Structure formats: C-alpha cells, structure tokens
Amino acid sequence: MKSDAELLASSGHDPQAFRQLYDRYAEAIHAFLLRRTSDREAALDLTAETFAQVWTSRHRFVDQKGGSAGPWLFGVARNVLLRSARERRLISEASAALRITHGRSSVTPDTSWVDGMDADLETALASLPDAQRIAVELRVLDDRPYDEVAEALDCTPTAARIRVSRGLARMRTSLQPVSNPKES
C-alpha cells in the first residue's frame, strides 16, 4: 500500500492515486469540518473545496510525518474554513453597513419565467461528468438516499454527497439567469 506522500507525488500522472488519497481522508475531513460548522451542507462544500485546494497545491506538499499527509490535509481544511468564515464575516459586515437585508423577495413569479426550463435543466444535467450526473439523477430525480447513491456509484456516502453537491453547483452555474421578456 502506497503512503500518502507517494500518492500525492504520483497523482499528477495517475488520477487513481489522488482518488485513493481522497478515499482515505474525505470522511475524516468532512467530520472535522462538520464539528466546526454544525452545518452538513457547508461541511460538504468545505470538504470539496479542501480537496480542490489540495489538488492545486499538491506539488507544495513536504513529507514531514513519515509519508502521512494527514496533518497537511487537516491544515488545508483549517485554512479553507478560516477563509470561508472571514469571507462570510466580510459579506455580513458589508451588508449591514449598506443596510442590505437577505429577506425573501416580494416579487410574484410570472409563469413565463419557467418557459423552456425543462429543456435547460436537461441540457445542464447532460453536460455533467458521468459520476456527477448519475449522482444527481439518483438523489434528486429518483429521491434515493445517499447510501443507495453511494452503492450505485461504488463510493462512500460522503463521496456521493460531494458528487451531488458538485453536480448541483455546476448546474446552478450553467443555468445563467435570463432577463424577463416583459422588462425589455
């Protein structure tokens, strides 16, 4: 079995190496972040962000613990959490200074707003990578529990949650807002 350091070193040319590292630590990182946020969705997003950061900075890893990347990974998770808290605080302070509230909109939806929505959603779903598309289909469209999604995708329930979260985030991004035709 390869050490964490060996997996990180070979992850640039072997995608399975990074996957193995992810599988070793994803649940522990998620639990660490969940304990600090008490918010499952936020912890999943932060876990995904942690591993994205690990991927982009993997070349900076220095083995100081006999092949274990655990302390480094938890340090990255801590930094991602701190940055997120700092950004949230700045947004909150700016909103308060500008007297912006985050209440519900009082606008009444117009039925024309949803014209073509099904086709847009199908296109956004079809554009996802297979693992994310299947995860979203199983969880959101078929309303299957994460344990069943994980079993179908041959991964952990945490990894299934992350795939669903990432897939929905990509869909959200790809579904750009359209201006109301009545405003034109």
Structure described in brief:
By secondary structure, this protein is an all-alpha fold. The protein has eight helices and no strands.
Please explain how this structure is put together:
Helix 6 (130-141) crosses helix 8 (157-174). The protein has helices at 4-10, 15-37, 40-56, 70-97, 117-126, 130-141, 146-153, 157-174. It contains eight helices and no strands. It has two domains: 4-97, RNA polymerase sigma factor, region 2, helix turn helix motif (Rna Polymerase Sigma Factor, Chain: A, Orthogonal Bundle), CATH 1.10.1740; 116-175, Winged helix-like DNA-binding domain superfamily/Winged helix DNA-binding domain (Arc Repressor Mutant, subunit A), CATH 1.10.10. 67% of the residues lie in helices and 0% in strands. It is mostly helical and 184 residues long. It is globular.
List strands and helices in order, with pairings:
Elements: H1 4-10, H2 15-37, H3 40-56, H4 70-97, H5 117-126, H6 130-141, H7 146-153, H8 157-174
Helix pairs in contact: 1-2, 2-3, 2-4, 3-4, 3-8, 6-7, 6-8, 7-8
Portion of residues in beta strands equals under 5%
SSE string: HHHHHHHH
The overall number of domains is 2
SS class: mainly alpha
Give the CATH superfamily of the largest domain. Answer: RNA polymerase sigma factor, region 2, helix turn helix motif
- The quaternary state of the protein chains shown equals single chain
| Count of helical regions | 8
Mean pLDDT: 82
Can you summarize the main beta sheet?
Answer: none
Poorly predicted runs: none
How much helix, percentage-wise, in residues?
55-70%
In whole angstroms, the N-to-C terminal distance is 62 Å
